[in-house]
Structures are given as structure tokens and as C-alpha cells.
Amino acid sequence: xxxxxxxxxNLIKQLAKLPGIGEKTAERLALHILRSSERDAQLLxxxxxxxxxxxxxxxxxxxxxxxxxxxxxxxxxxxASLLCVVEQPADMxxxxxxxxxxxxxxxxxxxxxxxxxxGPDSIRIAELIQNIRAGEVSEVIIATSTSLEGESTASxxxxxLSEFPVKVSRIASGVPMGGDLKYVDQVTLKRALETRHxx
Amino acid sequence: xxxxxxxxxNLIKQLAKLPGIGEKTAERLALHILRSSERDAQLLxxxxxxxxxxxxxxxxxxxxxxxxxxxxxxxxxxxASLLCVVEQPADMxxxxxxxxxxxxxxxxxxxxxxxxxxGPDSIRIAELIQNIRAGEVSEVIIATSTSLEGESTASxxxxxLSEFPVKVSRIASGVPMGGDLKYVDQVTLKRALETRHxx
Lengths: 199, 199
What we know:
Largest interface: A-B, 56 and 56 residues
Distance between the termini of chain A: 63 Å
Oligomer: homodimer
CATH class of the largest domain in chain A: Alpha Beta
């Protein structure tokens, strides 16, 4: 590391803090930034600061937003009777990309995990209840992941929301589309058989 | 891309310009930067600007440097009679890491390539001659890469420097250490046989 000037080493150290970026990659990136135009480097530097300054949580769904309400929550064309509960902003983006959902979202900001000491008070369950109490929602779709924690969060929410006058559903899990049965793991196949449905 | 607020999209776009970073990785990095502390984001942003502001070429060897002369050129303990000619600053770093060289460097800043229209005037050959004419150097080690262009640059320099009162040598190429002969390509094996040496 001592073979580069300090300003290069400093940038390598900062870049190597990013996930999936080791020292070798950080070195390559730093040398690339050094070769790139003054303007490109300034843009990169500036957008990092802007990101931290501007982005906040949407006051309704807790998605990432530049304004009080995110793009989806400010869209009058969306169906206010459908509410999709997800773990993280990235999950919302994945569902949006599928184009299969036209309602609103609620981002929990995590999942229940007794191992990590994350109970119902640590994620946004109170805000979800408040949202449902407002009365516009008629169906809550629970789209937490199918990990152990995601599943147990889903079943906790299923029990909790059964006391409210809303339909509660869970996204289906099973064999991925285009998947070959012989390569699908046993747990997924078991679930696919258990939750089989008519045509 | 439209599912994130503008400031996130802007950073994703800038990060995706870096080599080896696609849109998916850029998205992951941007979300990581968003989650990281204010201080870390500022440090990253600041070091990028500092890099472009501070780093320049060493006035003697053309390595990257924060000052007029780089660390190596300012080191009085190094052997001024040895000069190692490399293509890029990263090659110098690789040789330094090997710990096998205690002289000075000369960085060409590229290789001759008729395909890309890079002739002797486009890389730092005049500066190399000037350095040799100064009279301190007694051996020039040509350590350009073993690519087609690196090899032809090496043989061009070999011919050119034969007119000067210095010894000119080329780093050896052959079977990598720890390498298994049956996995070594034919060109490398041929070279290893041709340049065989006594014990």
C-alpha cells in the first residue's frame, strides 16, 4: 500500500470499505478515477454528498424519497385499497419492476429475529397498524422474504392482522418460473405442493 | 431505475461508470453508502476530490506522486545505477511489492502500438534518453509486459539503447513459480526453453 502517494492510498481505503470491494478492486477503481476527467470525479463526489443530504424516508410508506412523500405515495392513479408489506426499499423496487402491483407499500425496515433481538417494536409494525386503522386498505399482501425470519414475520403479521377488517394474504412461494423441477430444493418443492391451486 | 428517488439514481449512474461495476452492483453500493454514516460518506466524497487535486506525476520517473518527486525518487538509499523501465504506475507497484529491485524507475505511460497509432513520440522515450544521458545509470532493465505490444516496445528500446554506454537487460519470462508444466501455454514454454540458463 505504501507504494502509492497518500491521496491514492486514502481513496483505496475508503473504497475498500464498500461491500464486495476488496483492496485489489479498490486500487483499480482509484486508478480509474485518477485517469477519468475532473468533471466525472467531481460528479461522483458530489452525488455521494447529495445522496446523504437529500434522501429521507417517505412519511407514509417509509420508502426512500427526496420529498415528504415518495413517487408511489404521491401517485393518485394507484389503488389505495391494496397495501403490500415488504422488508426493505430494495424489495419494493423488485416488486415495482415486476409491474404486477398497483397499490401502495409499507416498508417494515427489517424482520423479526429473536436471534438478533429484533422484536415487534424494532420494526415498523405500529405504523402498519396505524395505516390500516385509517380505513382505506381492504387487502394487505405480506411480501416479506421466504427466509426463516421473513416467514416468521409473515406469520406473526398474519395473526396480528386477523383482528382487523381487512383481507390478509401472503405472496406465493414455489418453483421459480423457467425452473427445472430436478434442480429445485426440497423445501421449495414441498411448499409448492402444499400450496398447489386450481386452474 | 425510476423506482428510486433522483439522488439515489444519480449516484447509481455515477458508480456504474466505474470499471467492472454494473447497474446491479452500483445499486447495492449506493444503498450501502446511504446506510453508512454521514462521516464515511463525506470521507469517500472528500478523498475523491483530494485525489484529483493532489496527485501528479513525479518529475523524474513519472510515477504517481503527491509532491514534485515520488517516494522512491526522494529515497537516498536507492541505487541510482539501476533503472527499471515499466509501462504504467501499477507495474512499478507490482515490482516494488516483489521487493527484488532497489534502483529507480522510468514509467513510459504506455507501449508502442501501430494499431492504436502510438509511436515513440507518444510515450516517454525522449525523457528516458535524457535520464540515461545524465550519466548516473549503468544498467537499464526493460520490464514492459510480455504482451505483443510490450514485447515489441522492449525490442525497440533494446535496439535504441544499444547506442548508449549502458547495459540493457530484459526481465525473464517463462514458467510461473509454482506452475505445473502441463498447464503452461506453448508460447510461454517455448520462451522458457529458449531463455534457459545455467545454475
